[in-house]
Design brief:
Elements (H helix, E strand, L loop, with lengths): L12 H18 L2 E11 L8 E11 L2 H13 L11 E11 L5 E8 L2 E4 L6 H23 L3 H15 L8 H13 L1
Antiparallel strand pairs: 1-2, 1-3, 3-4, 4-5
Length: 187
C-alpha cells in the first residue's frame, strides 16, 4: 500500500541544514540595516518664521532589526534632535525608516508622542497594489490642494500617503517586520 503523502513532505537532516544555511546567507546579504529619520527643520527665529524644510538624517547602521528599532525609538524619544552647529535650528522627527543593504524597506513608522508608531506591513502583493493605488490617490489630492493654495491640507494628505507607503515592506522582510510590529505593540 502506498501513502498519499508526497516524498517532499519529509526532509532529512541534511536538507534542513542546507536550507538553514541558505536562509542565513540570504539574510547576511541584506544586512546591515540603515535607520534614518525625516525631520521637519525650522528656525526658532521670528524672522525665519515661514521657513520649514524636510531633512533626512541618517541614524546609523545596525546588525539586526531589534537593534535598529531600539535606535530609532531612542532617537525620536526626545521629540527633537540637537544639531549643534546652529543653536536656533530645530529638527522635529516626523517619520522613521529602516532599509536593508539592498535598499529594500524593512520597516517604517510615524513619529507620534515621542515614539515610533510602526506601520503594519502589507500581507500580500495584492494588498500592496491596493495600498499603492490609495497612496497615489492621496498624493493627487495633495497636488490639487497645493494648486488650490491650501498647503495645510496638502501636508496632511502627504503625511497620510507616506504612512500608507510605509506599509510597503520588501517581501523578504514582511513576516519578520509584522512580528516585530506585533511585539512592539505588545510591549
Amino acid at each position: 500500500m502506498t501513502s498519499p503523502i508526497s516524498q517532499t513532505a519529509f526532509r532529512g537532516p541534511g536538507n534542513n541544514l542546507v536550507g538553514g544555511v541558505l536562509a542565513h546567507l540570504r539574510l547576511a546579504d541584506r544586512l546591515p540595516l540603515r535607520v534614518s529619520c525625516r525631520y521637519l527643520a525650522f528656525w526658532d527665529d521670528p524672522a525665519l518664521d515661514q521657513l520649514c524644510i524636510n531633512r533626512e538624517v541618517d541614524l546609523g547602521t545596525y546588525g539586526d532589526l531589534a537593534a535598529a528599532m531600539t535606535a530609532a525609538r531612542k532617537a525620536v524619544a526626545s521629540g527633537h534632535l540637537d544639531v549643534g552647529r546652529d543653536a536656533a535650528l530645530r529638527l522635529v522627527p516626523q517619520f522613521v525608516t529602516i532599509f536593508d543593504a539592498e535598499h529594500g524597506l524593512v520597516l517604517a513608522g510615524e513619529v507620534q508622542m515621542g515614539g515610533a508608531q510602526w506601520c503594519t506591513p502589507v500581507d500580500s502583493d495584492a494588498e500592496a497594489r491596493r495600498v499603492v493605488n490609495e497612496a497615489c490617490g492621496l498624493r493627487a489630492k495633495a497636488r490639487a490642494a497645493t494648486d488650490a493654495d491650501d498647503p495645510a491640507s496638502a501636508a496632511a494628505l502627504l503625511t497620510r500617503a507616506q504612512a500608507l507607503e510605509g506599509r510597503l515592506v520588501d517581501p523578504f522582510w514582511r513576516d519578520l517586520a509584522a512580528a516585530a510590529v506585533d511585539l512592539a505593540l505588545a510591549a
